[in-house]
Specification:
The structure is a homodimer. By secondary structure, chain A is mostly helical. Chain A contains 11 helices and no strands. The radius of gyration of chain A is 19 Å and the shape is globular. Chain A binds a DNA duplex through α3.
Chain lengths: 205, 205
DNA sequence: GTCTATAATAAGATAGAC
DNA sequence: GTCTATCTTATTATAGAC
């Protein structure tokens, strides 16, 4: 994530924007070069090929996404409070870059020519990251009767899914319900509370 | 959706597969032609350009998705029963083609050069389709005290989001939790019940 | 309607000067 | 490190025979 030269930084910055917006196949090296304020030759000088540049960007963004996801929230013992702050923090993070999640899900779904090793790197390098610990936390809450009997895996990605879908659906929702501004801050704030309430009522004992 | 010639049908069939898997930019006319058992010249003879062929496929799939979504489920008055059968039916539909939803969300998110008119067509043509009626149904259930006070928009796409995310996340989940087979039928069955229970507990009075 | 052959162009990548 | 000019290949699209 830290690059020695300023040019390198500008390239990765530009590439990230273009890849996220257009996807790997839709992205054009020319556009990336242009946005970075350089030419294609220099692009290849630094990253050798589109594929390598893409891998760099993808790795950065996925690992950032996971760091945000698992670390951005104060760890509270009590389940209700934890859930509340988690949902608020995560939706805020997603709100900062609504396109990112679409990009990641698309590329992950493209099946992993490169990805097995890539995921290895991400999970190895980020020490605090642990999907397993989230599952454990839920299991314990069930045992302590803090929440009702639920499948921990299903609950975990129900929470994630509700947060993520908020932004995945936005372009469609604008078409379906033009009377509402789904990108407005007030909608996002309301969404947070509605998601929290739905889940909390859904799992409290 | 009905094409005069057999060749036309085969082309659209092949194009649908390729576009869904690779996306618009990643798809290759050569591959589509090959899968349809013809050559590229004939492809252009029928559909003139990649863009037109793509529009045809996209329109078909989106409208099919909406038909399935709004029509595939028996309309029950009682909320709990309706919710249960709706979730089961919709997850079953999505399960038939898990890649489809990723394709649609990606393309919708790509922003609508062509799409405004396209959506018009879809919603005009499909008479039974009505997002508004779903919202109304929820509002009534709230008034009748069948469910607690919730925002109908948020509830509607929370339901949709939970169903959809089941399949969006699959490739990632396989990596995160290799100990579980998320594509197995038993997982899907369990998922249906967990989603229903979460929502129903989440909204019952 | 369907094919082979080919044009036209777009896009990634490199050579070589500075 | 950075640029201009250029090569190579992939990809869409069409011309023209059958």
């Amino acid at each position: 994530m830290d690059y020695s030269s300023e040019t390198e930084r500008k390239i990765v910055q530009a590439a990230t924007e273009v890849f996220i917006q257009k996807g790997k196949d839709g992205a054009r090296m020319q556009e990336i070069a242009h946005r970075a304020g350089i030419n294609q030759a220099l692009l290849h000088y630094y990253f050798r090929s589109k594929d390598r540049l893409y891998r760099e960007v993808f790795k950065n963004e996925v690992s950032r996404q996971f760091r945000d996801f698992f670390n951005s929230v104060p760890v509270t013992e009590e389940m209700q409070e934890f859930l509340h702050s988690f949902i608020h923090h995560y939706i805020d993070k997603l709100h900062e870059n609504p396109q990112l999640i679409r990009f990641i899900l698309w590329e992950i779904g493209s099946g992993g020519e490169n990805f097995p090793e890539l995921f290895q790197e991400i999970f190895d390098s980020a020490s605090k990251i642990s999907p397993q610990s989230a599952i454990e936390k839920i299991k314990q809450a069930v045992q302590r009767n803090e929440i009702r009997q639920v499948d921990p895996y299903n609950l975990l990605f129900s929470i994630i899914g509700l947060c993520i879908y908020t932004f995945l659906a936005q372009p469609l929702l604008k078409k379906l319900f033009p009377e509402i501004d789904f990108t407005a801050n007030e909608f996002i704030e309301k969404r947070k509370e509605e998601v929290f309430n739905l889940i909390w009522h859904g799992i409290k004992p």
